[in-house]
Amino acid sequence: MTTDTPHAPSAPRKRTVLIRRHAIVTRLTHWLNVLCLSFLLLSGLQIFNAYPRLHWGQYGADADPAFVTTGAREQNGEPRGFVEIGGVSLPTTGVLGLSKLDGELTPRAFPGWLTIPSYQDLAAGRRWHFFFAWAFLINGLVYLAYGILSRHFRRDLAPDRRELTPRHLWREIVDHGRLRFPSGDDARHYNALQKLTYIAVIAVLLPLMLLTGLTMSPGIDAALPFLLDIFGGRQSARTLHFITASLLVLFVIVHVAMVILSGPWNNMRSMITGRYAIRKEGPDA
Asked: What's the whole-model pTM score?
């Protein structure tokens, strides 16, 4: 007589599943944003080079005090580039204030490889900037309409109460600091930090950048004079415009770093094809 020995249960197998993560409108507007913001940044630095100082208030000219200045000056008989913030001056020769053009050190706030066009031309820089500003605005309105009508904002970006508790947010901060990213079903959705960051960019930074940009236009000021009152003057609007643009650059840097660290191919595939791979327990399909 033989007896059957019960087998120990085998560990559940994991399989890779492709899920639908990004709709086509989200993907198209995302890549158009990448294009527009790139040209806006490079042409904006060209415009800044024409007057590389930031003021606060109604007035901004050479005789008025500036709290940020980028330029070059003689030091020990040699030119030196600098960035001055308040009363603190930082040496930046070779990058900011003084950089090489055709092999020679030339005074200019941002170097030629960071501006469109590479040579100093305010009129050309403004044309590039305005063209892509309108393209960026139209693209943003399309995304906004889609987000509302499809309930994308409410479904994918609105955090619930549990996600907003200090304990939950702190855990996500610690996990990000240790490069522990969501896996399995948790990777289907944005985490709370992503949601709050995207909301801040969509609802605060981008509208502020748009409105401060409009405030710098004399034609818009004539039609909408209240914008000058809201931002405290054209020079204040210019400074806020520069700050919001800098914060957007910081967001992009962090965003790209997280994409690379959490799986560049999987993230890129999801933003190109809409499909994102997750690992799930269960029998092979």
From this structure: 0.86
